[in-house]
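Fill in residues.
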């Protein structure tokens, strides 16, 4: 699935696929529709909490990316929120459903 979310006042895009707890997860920091940094985890091979929901993994990766890229967040105390209506691609049973 490819979907956008807000965290700490910034816009990010997540691309993840695989079985729950064993996904490959890519996070991209978006500024004005442009990609400004990326971080990822392969939950099958890298140490992580395989029971954690994808939202928690997104937050963990964003926190690492914010430190690595020295991102000055617009609203540092703002939590995680999916951007409604911005599911860009969703895959079910191998059939891609574009929104």
């Amino acid at each position: 699935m490819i979907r956008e979310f807000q965290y700490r006042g910034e816009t990010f895009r997540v691309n993840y696929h695989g079985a729950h707890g064993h996904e490959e997860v890519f996070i991209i920091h978006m500024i004005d529709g442009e990609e400004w940094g990326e971080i990822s985890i392969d939950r099958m091979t890298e140490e992580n909490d395989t029971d954690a929901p994808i939202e928690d993994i997104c937050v963990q990766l964003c926190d690492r990316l914010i430190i690595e890229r020295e991102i000055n967040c617009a609203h540092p105390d703002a939590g995680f929120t999916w951007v409604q209506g911005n599911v860009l691609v969703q895959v079910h049973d191998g059939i891609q459903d574009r929104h």
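The chain has a mean pLDDT of 89.
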